[in-house]
Every structure is written in structure tokens, then in C-alpha cells.
Design goal:
The complex is a heterodimer of chains A (315) and B (497). Chain A is mainly alpha-helical and 315 residues long. Chain A has helices at 2-13, 15-30, 37-62, 70-84, 92-114, 120-139, 149-156, 164-182, 184-194, 196-201, 206-232, 243-253, 265-284, 289-314, and strands spanning 158-159, 162-163. In chain A, strand 1 (158-159) and strand 2 form a beta hairpin. The two termini of chain A are 17 Å apart. In chain B, the strands form six sheets. Chain B has a six-stranded mixed beta sheet with strand order 6-9-10-3-11-12, with helices on both faces. Classes of the chains: A mainly alpha (315), B alpha/beta (497). Chains A and B meet through helix 9 and helix 10 of A and helix 2 and strand 8 of B.
Chain lengths: 315, 497
């Protein structure tokens, strides 16, 4: 009796994982080519940029915030990196500049929310629009071409068969999971999102914590911008449209609560893989991209609905 | 040194309001010092200044351990040795017990959180407190009382010299209050001073050594509890003598107007409870926190599904599947938590009063503003709601006046049966008295009132009959002639007498 109860609790806790496995099995049965190593590498590549953004987003959402601006930041920092990555400087320069620019956007967001007391949605909607403008301004509205071969090689290369982009993703996942689960800082991020007032009267500097979560999201958006330019080999000011939505989707599907204070790293990993696998699976089955959007939307709602229902029964 | 804490000549002005006007507080080591005063007297403001949540106006000084003290934020206050248990402050529900206890001052090993040490320390603290929960349990799965005790454990574990407790017993049962008092005594023996804020007179007299009273931002005075009695204390708080704390108006009791038979809730929080009430009667429902009283009336009102039972209003059987079904029959429920289920806090008094009976305020099918205004004006006067105008935002009113707005909103719908869940919780003496008188007038008009309350003196003061619940069951009832605190407590804890 007690065992079945525990099993049920476990299943409801890891429900999204079960859905993911089921999906992989179904896709493999429908299209055996899905499970080919070549395609798996492809999935990892596709998942990596969204994954890095999703982990930044995860900090913000767990602390009770929300960030609409990361897509624009990816485009802006991508253009910056393309302009500096033409071979005139060592590659570390465009990388650092992109990450610092992202960090700056994040700090502006954080200060607006935590100090200016603006709703996160409004503040980041503003920066989303303004930063997109910045990307267009510095590139004159045209793609920046001519990045060095060395820069292009980052996304194209692989280590022991694992694409370099995925290596970046894994490193980011490990760092973020460690910070959230083991450090005092991580604990306080959860506390801020769980109950901001309680965190404040417990002596936590909630302003600092909230700014820092936006800063992390910005920093990782800068890294993503740098990697994306390498992947597509141009700095495209109109790129990364609605990437923030994909990052939010990965978090929410992965069990991060939009009201803050709840969320686990492995959930976001699964959430991120889940939406990539859906896109990839539909692609190799030859479903049109219009239909893909409809299916993706339906699956997001369905996954979260099943998740909520599963948890509801536990209580 | 006589005092561990001295606050002298403290003022605090908010835009347009002087919340504190040159007040003082002197606390001795090892004493339990009560802060008394009605809502808006300035007790909470004074404590928030102490904790560094508010900054006092220039002038005045605070001495802690004889040295000048200033806290810019709660962390500084705690580091200096002052901790506070906040009223109505929810803990972090999605965190585990041990995480809540150590939030903001996490135990570390090599710069990382030392989870193992935290769990062990939490386990020890929980056991000392006589609580039976695992430190790893998530707070969401605990009862309100258990959460409250976790807050208390957290404050105690800071090793503070002064602990402020703001309404610490609001949500816990008698047995847990006794445990809390044991803890307080243990702390005071060690020389820790407790500043105790509560509206419950009985607690003040049983645990506190001295009392300081405030009224409208002014300091009234400090005295030993031994020199005071309830009447004297109320006089200090209210500024005038209230001899009749529980006014009871006579009314003729008529025929049965409302009956609920064998109510069982689908979630088993209420198991087979029946009750009935007559015209002209005030029926009290007593019991401990968690006895299922609110759950019973929420079930009757269609807010939660029932798995059994019948409801009769004026002799007619009513099938209730949502609140609409029973509101139509002339039943009103004034819920326990006015801020969550009672009011639109950012709406005006007028808007709130118009919320339920909006159909009465229409002309030609459209909302008629002037009708709504005159209706709301009528109830503002009838219920003595203290507000600058009907356009005032409800969130800015005091608790007592907010509660009156909730009642007004339902009265406008002219119900015959009015159910109130803890209608006087957290409101001041004068507003309480207004509400008792109002209930008396309502039953005089031939309506029936059902009132849930955790304060037995209040039930005994104004009810004609008290039904008592215990652990989801009906455990008995007492007629007005036979009221006694012991009898009701015995029923509430299901002890046979």
C-alpha cells in the first residue's frame, strides 16, 4: 500500500520525464532514423542555445521574475561578436564583449525590477524592444558578414564526437545546477521567489539577489549570442526572434513554477530536450512548419496540464 | 543595567499621517512585555522601526544593551540580537522545514550550504518544541498551526536577546499555545526578553509581566500586569470605559429557517454534521482551529463539493452545487479571510458594496451609478463605516472597517440567513462592539445568524446557542442558560464530562 503510494508520488514528480521517454519511443517506432547518432548529435546542437538561455531564465523565474528581453539580447550580442570576430582580435575579445553586453542588459532589467519596483513583464518588454533597436542600429539593419574561420570553427567542431555547442551547454548546466542546489546564493534565489517578504525579513538582501538573477540571464544570453553567430556564421540583427518564449517554455514544461520558488535543473534539461525532440521529430516526419507550431503549442499546454493534474492528486 | 531595550521619543510620519508621535518603550531583560492597543495604535510600526523595516523620523533614540542602536534592515537587527515573529507572514511554502528555519543565515561548510548540519539542528529544535514533523517535509504539506510553530522555532533559534512576537497564537490550538508558553518561560529564565503583541486578553494576563499601551500613535502608559484587570486595560486602549463588551439585544426566536442535515464533505474534512437555526436566533459554532468549522460552512455554501447531506432553506430543499444556488435562497457567507475571499482591496468602498447585489443597482439593464452611490451611502451610515468617502480604496481602511464593508456588501442583497466566519478576528474593540450590535439588530428583524468564532467569551457573550465541532464531527451543543467555558472546551476537545 505504502509502496504503491510512493511509486505514484515518484511518477507524478518525474512525470515530465515519463512523457519525454514515451515521446522518444513513439518517434523511434515511427521513424527509426530518429535514433541514428547523426540525428542525436543534431538534436543536441539544436537544443544547446535554447538550453543555455533556459538556464538563465530559470534563475529569473525561480526568483519570482520573468525576462522577455533575452531573445533581443542574443541578437544584439551576436551582432557585436560578429563585428569583433572578423579576425582582427583574438576570439576571447568578442566572447567577453558579448557576455559583458548581455550582463549590462541584465543589470538594467534587474535594477528596474528590484529597485524601480517595475513589474518584470513591463521592464523586460521595454528592454526587449530597445535592445532589438540597438542590434539594428549598430548593424545598420544589415547582417554582419565576414567572421573569421577560427570563429566559425567553434560551432562546427566537436570533441570526441560531441558537438562543441553541446559541450558549452553541459558545462553551463553543471555550473547552474551546482549553484542552485548547493550554494547559499542558490538557496536564497529560491527563498526570494518563494516569498519575497519572508526572505527580506529573514535578513536576505533581496534587491541584490533579484538583480543578480537578471544579470545571470543577461550573461548567458550574451554567451548564446556569441555561439549563435558562430553557428550561423553571420551576425543577424533580426535573429533569435521569440527565443525568450522557447526558454520560458523549456522552464515551464520542466516544472519551474511561474509564481517562483520552485524548479529543478534536471526538469529544465528535460523540458528543453522535450521541445527540441518535438521539433526534430516533426521535421524528420516531414510535417510542415505551420503544423509544427500548432503541435508544439498543444504539447506545451498538455504537458503542463498533465503535470499539474499529477501533482494535484498527490495532495 | 535595568533595561535591555529602550526606545525613547520615537516618531514616524507617513505621507499625511503621524503613525507614531513621540512614543516610548522600555523592556527589561527576562520579562514578557505586552504591547497593547487597537489596530492603528502604532504597535506594528514601532516594531518595524526596531527591526529596521521602517526608518524612524529624525530625533528620539533607541538603546540596546545600553548602547545606541540602529538597524538599517532586518539582518542587522538579527545580528545585533533582536528577532521577530511576524503576524500574517506566510513562510516559504515550497521550501522544506529545515530550509525555512535557516533561511537568511544558512549553515555553511567550505562556503556551501551544509544541508546535513541544518537538518540535524532543525531536528533538535523541532523535538525541543514538541512538534512531530520531519525537517525535510515541505511546508505546503503542514497545517497552519505547524507552520506558525516553525516560524516561532526560527525566531527562537537566532539566539536573540529580544524576541518580538506579533500575534503568535492567531492560528494555533490551545495545546500548542501551552507549548509556546512553556518555551517563552524557558527563554525568559535565560534572560531573553519577549515583546508580546496579542489581542487576546487571557493570554496577556497569563504570560505577560508588564504591559505598554498605545492609542492612535500615542504612548498611553506602562504598568505591571498584576496591577491591571481587563476593564482597566480596555479603558487604556480605547480611551473610554466599555463596560458592556458583548452587548446582546433581545429578539423573539421564531420558526426554523435554515437546516443542514448530515453534511459530509467529499474530502472528509466534515463528517456527518447537522445543524439548524431559527429566525431571531444567533447560533455560534465553536471548536478548535482545524475542527472543520470553516470547512462546514464552505461546504454548505457550495464552495467545496459535498458527498452527502441535505440543505433546507425556509422549509424548501435546496440543491447546492455552487454559491449561486444558495445565495439565490437568501443565504450570505462572510468568509474568514476578508482579504482573499471577501474584498477587492484595490476597489473603492462603493464598488465593493455593489459587488453581490449588483442586480438591485441596475436600471434598464445597465449599472446605475447614482443608485449604487446612494445604496453604499446608506450602508456606510448604517454600519458606521469610518471612511472619508465612498470613493476611498478599501485597502486603505482599517481591518474593522474592511470587515464592515464585507458585511455591507452582503446585507445589500437582503439575506435572511447570514453566516459569518470569524467576523471579529484582528479588529479592534470598538469595531467588534459595532458588529455585535449589528448582528443583534439583524436577528431582531427576523433574520438568522450563524457565527463561527475561536474566542469562546465572544460566543458566550452574543449567541443564543453554541454548537461545537471537533475533528470534523459535531460534538454537541450548549444552550445560552448553560454556557460555561469548561463545557465548551470539553466538547471542543471531545472530552466526556
Amino acid at each position: 500500500m505504502k509502496d504503491t503510494k510512493r511509486t505514484k508520488a515518484l511518477i507524478s514528480e518525474y512525470f515530465i520525464f515519463v512523457i519525454f521517454i514515451a515521446l522518444v519511443v513513439v518517434l523511434t517506432c515511427l521513424k527509426p532514423s530518429f535514433i541514428q547518432p547523426g540525428n542525436l548529435v543534431n538534436i543536441l546542437k539544436q537544443a544547446s542555445i535554447n538550453g543555455i538561455l533556459a538556464f538563465g531564465m530559470m534563475f529569473v523565474i525561480i526568483a519570482g521574475g520573468f525576462d522577455m528581453s533575452v531573445g533581443s539580447t542574443v541578437a544584439f550580442t551576436g551582432v557585436l561578436a560578429a563585428m569583433l570576430g572578423q579576425g582582427q582580435y583574438p576570439l576571447i575579445v568578442p566572447l567577453l564583449v558579448a557576455m559583458l553586453a548581455g550582463l549590462a542588459v541584465g543589470v538594467v532589467n534587474g535594477v528596474g525590477v528590484a529597485v524601480g519596483d517595475l513589474p518584470p513583464f513591463i521592464m523586460t518588454l521595454g528592454t526587449m524592444t530597445a535592445v532589438r533597436g540597438l542590434a539594428l542600429l549598430i548593424s545598420n539593419g544589415k547582417p554582419v558578414i565576414g567572421i573569421s574561420a577560427e570563429y566559425k570553427a567553434i560551432a562546427a567542431s566537436s570533441v570526441l564526437g560531441v558537438p562543441m555547442l553541446a559541450v558549452f551547454l553541459v558545462v553551463i548546466i553543471l555550473i547552474c545546477s551546482f549553484v542552485l542546489a548547493k550554494t547559499v546564493y542558490g538557496r536564497r534565489v529560491y527563498a526570494c521567489g518563494g516569498n519575497l517578504l519572508a526572505a527580506r525579513v529573514s535578513g536576505i538582501n533581496t534587491t541584490k539577489i533579484r538583480i543578480s538573477t537578471f544579470a545571470i540571464a543577461g550573461l548567458l544570453a550574451g554567451l548564446s549570442g556569441f555561439l549563435m553567430t558562430s553557428r550561423v556564421t553571420i551576425g543577424q540583427p533580426n535573429a533569435a526572434e521569440s527565443y525568450e518564449m522557447d526558454a520560458i517554455t523549456a522552464c515551464v514544461v520542466g516544472g519551474v513554477s511561474m509564481s517562483g520558488g520552485v524548479g529543478k535543473s534536471w526538469g529544465v534539461v528535460v523540458g528543453c530536450l522535450l521541445i527540441t525532440v518535438i521539433a526534430n521529430g516533426l521535421d524528420i516526419m516531414g510535417v510542415s512548419s505551420h503544423w509544427q507550431k500548432i503541435v508544439k503549442g498543444a504539447i506545451i499546454v498538455l504537458a503542463v496540464l498533465l503535470d499539474i493534474k499529477g501533482k494535484g492528486k498527490k495532495n | 543595567m535595568e533595561y535591555v531595550l529602550e526606545m525613547k521619543d520615537i516618531s514616524k510620519t507617513f505621507p499625511g499621517v503621524a503613525a507614531l508621535d513621540h512614543v516610548q518603550l522600555r523592556v527589561k531583560p527576562g520579562e514578557v512585555h505586552a504591547l497593547m492597543g487597537e489596530n492603528g495604535a502604532g504597535k506594528s510600526t514601532l516594531m518595524k522601526i526596531l527591526m529596521g523595516i521602517y526608518t524612524k523620523d529624525p530625533g528620539g533614540e533607541i538603546l540596546f544593551d545600553g548602547k545606541p542602536y540602529h538597524a538599517a534592515n532586518p539582518k542587522e537587527a538579527m545580528d545585533t540580537g533582536i528577532a521577530m515573529i511576524h503576524q500574517e507572514l506566510n513562510p516559504i511554502l515550497d521550501m522544506a522545514v529545515y530550509e525555512n528555519i535557516f533561511v537568511g543565515r544558512e549553515l555553511r561548510k567550505n562556503g556551501l550550504v551544509d544541508k546535513k548540519a541544518e537538518i540535524e539542528a532543525a531536528q533538535k529544535l523541532i523535538e525541543e518544541c514538541g512538534l512531530h514533523v520531519s525537517p525535510k517535509e515541505t511546508l505546503r504539506n503542514l497545517t497552519v498551526a505547524q507552520c506558525q510553530l516553525i516560524e516561532i522555532i526560527k525566531a527562537i533559534s537566532v539566539n536573540a536577546k529580544v524576541i518580538v512576537m506579533d500575534e503568535p497564537t492567531a492560528a494555533i490550538t490551545e495545546r500548542e499555545v501551552e507549548l509556546l508558553f512553556q518555551h517563552i518561560r524557558r527563554l525568559t529564565e535565560k534572560g531573553v526578553a519577549i515583546i508580546y503583541i496579542s489581542h487576546r486578553m487571557a493570554e496577556i494576563f497569563s504570560i505577560c509581566d508588564r504591559v505598554s499601551v498605545y492609542r492612535d500613535g500615542q504612548y498611553i502608559g506602562t504598568d505591571d500586569t498584576a496591577n491591571l484587570d481587563e476593564t482597566k486595560l480596555i479603558k487604556m486602549m480605547v480611551g473610554r470605559e466599555i463596560t458592556d463588551v458583548y452587548p446582546k439585544l433581545d429578539a423573539d426566536i421564531g420558526e426554523v429557517i435554515f437546516e443542514a442535515k448530515n453534511i459530509v464533505r467529499a474530502d472528509q474534512k466534515v463528517k456527518n454534521v447537522s445543524l439548524s437555526v431559527c429566525r431571531g436566533e444567533i447560533l455560534g459554532i465553536g471548536g478548535l482551529v482545524g475542527a472543520g468549522r470553516s470547512e462546514l460552512v464552505e461546504g454548505i455554501f457550495g464552495m467545496q463539493p459535498l458527498s452527502g447531506g441535505e440543505i433546507y432553506v425556509k422549509g424548501k430543499k435546496v440543491k447546492v452545487s455552487s454559491p449561486r444556488d444558495i445565495i439565490k435562497e437568501g443565504v450570505a457567507l462572510i468568509t474568514e479571510d476578508r482579504k482573499v475571499t471577501g474584498l477587492n482591496l484595490s476597489g473603492s468602498v462603493n464598488d465593493n458594496i455593489a459587488m453581490v447585489a449588483i442586480k438591485k443597482l441596475l436600471s434598464h439593464g445597465l449599472y446605475n451609478r447614482s443608485k449604487a452611490l446612494s445604496a453604499s451611502q446608506e450602508y456606510i451610515e448604517k454600519l458606521n463605516i469610518k471612511t472619508p468617502s465612498g470613493n476611498q480604496i478599501v485597502g486603505n481602511l482599517s481591518g474593522g472597517n474592511q470587515q464592515k464593508v464585507v458585511i455591507a456588501k452582503w446585507l445589500l442583497n437582503e439575506p435572511d440567513i447570514i453566516i459569518l466566519d470569524e467576523p471579529t478576528r484582528g479588529i479592534d474593540v470598538a469595531a467588534k462592539r459595532d458588529i455585535y450590535l449589528l448582528l443583534g439588530q439583524l436577528v431582531r428583524q427576523g433574520k438568522a445568524v450563524i457565527m463561527i468564532s475561536s474566542e469562546i467569551p465572544e460566543l458566550m457573550g452574543i449567541c443564543d446557542r453554541i454548537a461545537v465541532m471537533c475533528e470534523g464531527n459535531y460534538s454537541g451543543e450548549v444552550q445560552r442558560g448553560e454556557f460555561s467555558q469548561e463545557r465548551i472546551m470539553a466538547l471542543a476537545s471531545a472530552i466526556k464530562v
